[in-house]
Specification:
With 141 residues, the protein is α+β, with helices and mostly antiparallel strands. It has a single domain, classed as Nuclear Transport Factor 2, Chain: A. Helices cover 30% and strands 38% of the residues. The chain contains four helices and six strands, in the order ααββαββββα. Strands 2-1-6-5-4-3 form a six-stranded mixed sheet. The radius of gyration is 15 Å and the shape is globular.
Length: 141
């Protein structure tokens, strides 16, 4: 059975992120893929993605990403993600707070030959940093 862009992207979030399977990165991401919007600069290739993955997983050892919606257009897929978890590790450069996080994001991926070759990400990391107490929330009212 041919894997659709939707199937590949859902498998990416389930295997790579929810199940923390590093081997799935090599299977689902092309060695020459480009990933935008996660680390301040584009990440080039599956090998370069692994340190970002480790840092995030070490910082949030109990997080889950639920794909709540998807939209496919040819070789591209857009997914809406709900991220929940707890800040339980120091890997992001600050002391773990133990605080819960609950935020949203979206990824647009381009799929070729059953692998992600390009990804554009926009996740609400500001809300995440506010929830763990690293960035103050504005006073409204």
């Amino acid at each position: 059975m041919h894997a659709t862009p939707d199937t590949i992207m859902r498998e990416w979030f389930d295997e790579v992120w929810n199940n923390r399977r590093v081997d799935a990165i090599d299977r689902l991401m092309a060695s020459n893929a480009t990933v935008h919007g996660l680390a301040g600069v584009p990440i080039s290739g599956a090998a370069a993605f692994k340190p970002f993955h480790k840092t995030f997983c070490d910082s949030f050892p109990e997080f889950q990403i639920e794909v709540t919606q998807s939209l496919v257009d040819g070789d591209r897929v857009c997914v809406v993600c709900h991220v929940t978890g707890r800040h339980g590790g120091d890997a992001l450069g600050g002391q773990a707070t133990g605080k819960s996080v609950d935020f949203w994001g979206m990824t647009v991926g381009r799929i070729e030959n059953g692998q992600i070759v390009e990804g554009w990400n926009t996740f609400d990391f500001l809300t995440m940093f506010q929830q763990i107490g690293w960035v103050p929330s504005p006073v409204v009212g």
